[in-house]
């Protein structure tokens, strides 16, 4: 048997942790840094294919979309194989979608792309502690993200529209 040697390599890239905007910390996948790494692998002529190991509950929709876009570009140029770990949910599922092949175990938790928005209201809690707010604002919706009062129907409609746009 003759041994074959090649300068071309298969890159193994780990997407492990919560997906966040920016660089990310230990236990997180930073959208910016991860997208840069994917772009580097896509442009490297020595990388013949990429295996993406995903173990993530998801996280930031913006960062997930940023990473997914880079992975889509990569998959158009090189084979992309996904190996799912214990969890590839929400954004972890989304970034896996452009692979030519996806491998998962029967116990892998995957799927569930969803978007939520939180509107906090500390008015009662603050009032119970004797805290009050005085508001000065420049427009009708300038304080729409405040935690000092319940949201109006208009503010909730704007927040719902934003959630729907992200989901789309």
Structural class: alpha/beta
Helix-strand topology string: EEEHEHEHEEHH
Secondary structure tally: strands: 7
The poorly predicted ranges are none
Can you tell me the overall shape?
Answer: elongated
Oligomer: single chain
- The helical percent reads 25-40%
Discrete helix count: 5
What integer value in Å does the Rg equal?
A: 22 Å
Helix/strand layout:
Elements: E1 9-16, E2 18-20, E3 28-30, H1 31-43, E4 47-56, H2 61-77, E5 80-89, H3 91-94, E6 101-103, E7 109-111, H4 123-128, H5 153-167
Parallel strand pairs: 1-4, 2-3, 4-5, 5-6, 5-7
Helix pairs in contact: 1-2
What does this structure look like?
With 168 residues, this protein is α/β, with parallel strands linked by helices. The protein is 33% helix and 24% strand. It has five helices and seven strands. Strands 1, 4, 5, 6 and 7 form a five-stranded parallel beta sheet that branches. It has a two-stranded parallel ribbon with strand order 2-3. Helix 1 (31-43) packs parallel to helix 2 (61-77). It is elongated, with a radius of gyration of 22 Å.
Structure keywords:
168 residues, alpha/beta, single chain, two-stranded parallel sheet
How would you summarize what this structure contains?
With about 170 residues, this protein is α/β, with parallel strands linked by helices. The chain has helices at about 30-45, 60-75, 90-95, 125-130, 155-165; strands at about 10-15, 20, 30, 45-55, 80-90, 100-105, 110.
């Amino acid at each position: 048997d003759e041994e074959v040697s090649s300068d071309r390599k298969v890159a193994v890239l780990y997407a492990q942790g919560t997906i966040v905007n920016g660089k990310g910390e230990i236990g997180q996948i930073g959208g910016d840094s991860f997208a840069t790494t994917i772009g580097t692998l896509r442009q490297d002529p020595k990388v013949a294919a990429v295996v993406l190991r995903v173990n993530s509950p998801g996280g930031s929709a913006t960062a997930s979309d940023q990473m997914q876009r880079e992975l889509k570009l990569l998959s158009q140029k090189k084979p992309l194989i996904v190996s799912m770990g214990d969890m590839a949910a929400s954004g972890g599922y989304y970034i896996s979608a452009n692979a030519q092949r996806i491998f998962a175990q029967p116990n892998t938790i995957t799927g569930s792309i969803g978007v939520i928005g939180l509107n906090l209201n500390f008015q009662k809690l603050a009032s119970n502690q004797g805290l009050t707010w005085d508001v000065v604002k420049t427009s009708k919706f300038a304080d729409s993200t405040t935690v000092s009062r319940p949201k109006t129907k208009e503010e909730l409609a704007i927040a719902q529209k934003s959630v729907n746009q992200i989901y789309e």
